[in-house]
């Protein structure tokens, strides 16, 4: 199924009132931190994790709080390495969040 579209012409930022972001693949940082604590008995704050990984505490907070945060693989690799976990266990795939005429069978 092709979800791309073509456009010829000029658009300005004023042509769009709102753009909905559809996120189908997410990374669950809270789950990673919680499972680290359960495994080690060490409660890791965002500031401590920031010091350990070199990722800013604000970035970590955004990743944990915003479902549509666009985390890079490098960032996920740093977090998983620092907390000794396989990152595959913290991804969720939610294709049902995207519904359109083609996808929903209507």
Explain the overall architecture.
There is one protein chain. The protein is mainly alpha-helical and 106 residues long. The chain has a domain at 25-94: lambda repressor-like DNA-binding domains (434 Repressor (Amino-terminal Domain)). The protein is 41% helix and 6% strand. The protein is built from five helices and two strands. It has helices at 29-40, 46-53, 57-65, 73-82, 101-104; strands at 25-27, 91-93. A two-stranded antiparallel sheet has the order 1-2. Helix 2 (46-53) crosses helix 3. The protein is globular, with a radius of gyration of 18 Å.
In short:
The chain has 106 residues and is mostly helical. Helix content is 41%, strand content 6%.
Classify the oligomer: single chain
Give the strand order of the largest sheet, numbering strands 1, 2, ... along the chain.
1-2
* Total strands: 2
CATH topology title of the domain at 25-94: 434 Repressor (Amino-terminal Domain)
Report the span from N to C terminus.
Answer: 15 Å
Shape: globular
CATH superfamily of the domain at 25-94: lambda repressor-like DNA-binding domains
Largest sheet: 2 strands, antiparallel
Q: What gyration radius follows from the Cα positions, in whole Å?
A: 18 Å
Number of DSSP helical runs? 5
Order of helices and strands: EHHHHEH
> What is the level-2 CATH architecture name of the domain at 25-94?
Orthogonal Bundle
Q: In CATH, what is the class of the domain at 25-94?
A: Mainly Alpha
> Percent range for helical residues?
40-55%
Low-confidence stretches: 1-9, 100-106
Mean pLDDT: 79
The assigned structural class equals mainly alpha
- The percent range for strand residues is 5-15%
């Amino acid at each position: 199924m092709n979800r791309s579209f073509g456009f010829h012409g000029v658009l300005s930022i004023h042509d769009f009132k709102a753009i909905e972001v559809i996120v189908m693949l997410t990374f669950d940082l809270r789950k990673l931190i919680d499972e680290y604590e359960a495994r080690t008995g060490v409660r890791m704050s965002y500031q401590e994790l920031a010091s350990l990984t070199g990722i800013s505490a604000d970035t970590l907070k955004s990743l944990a709080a915003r479902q549509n945060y666009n985390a890079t693989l490098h960032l996920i690799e740093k977090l998983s390495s620092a907390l000794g976990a396989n990152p595959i266990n913290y991804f969720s795939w939610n294709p049902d969040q995207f519904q359109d005429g083609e996808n929903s069978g209507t």
